[in-house]
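Quick question: what would this complex look like in 3D?
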Amino acid sequence: MPMTRDDIFAKVSDRLQDALGVDEDEVTPEATLTGDLGAESIDFLDIVFRLEKAFGIKIPRGELFPESLTAADSNFVQDGVVTEQGLAELRTKMPHADIDSFADDPKVENIPELFTVNMIVNFLDARVNA
Amino acid sequence: MRWIWIDRFTELVRGERAVAIKCISRAEDHLQDHFDGDPQLPASLMIEGMAQTAGILLGHANDFEHLVILAKIPKVSFHRVAYPGDVLRYEAIVQTLGEQGGTCTIEATLDNGPEAGAAVAEAEILFAHLDPDDPDYKGADQRNFVFTSNLLQVMD
């Protein structure tokens, strides 16, 4: 039986509260993991482990939280802004993220804003209901 | 002073669970100052013992191919103080184990005396793997590693 997005969100919220020590009302779909919820680099590994256990799946390295997104090719960034080529790479690497909104102001410094609670829910929705 | 905070492994089930014991001696240097006239095992060193137990368990699961580093302690609580003469039993259970690291829960209980079995502390610890081809490997501080060849002697 497929899981609803509400079911997925509730499970994700519980795990983020455990991993990041945040309150339930802080975990909104739009909340960014680093900016709003205070996640640091090692927390991403903690979150992946908790999600794997909660949903009974394996999440390969870099699939949910890709690393060094724009460093792979010097054409991906120009003057601190992600290029069209870079945006295409982001769409390939992060189909679960809202790249369209990011494309409105594609500064490199805005990349962490792609990592939202909703992004995790999108990823899991695609995985568990495939 | 050697950075070894467990004395012996008593049980090991590969990739699942491990038990180690720590005998607290009045002769340990740090107990002369923690505290003067009222020696107690510092909570931080109890965590270190729990981490060494769990770290060896995780390292053993991968044939010690990775360096295992204590990365995060999401939960820890202490229920009683541990004194010289106490024997602590650390039981670590693997919760998750993957390419990048693993998570264990660890319970510390008193293993001797009239109150044997009493809960002393419990923790959840996240470990990260560091491999020789990782750019951070050379800059890693050996003191941060959960186990070294010296520590593995407790498994002899």
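Answer marked as accepted. Chain B has one domain: 8-135.
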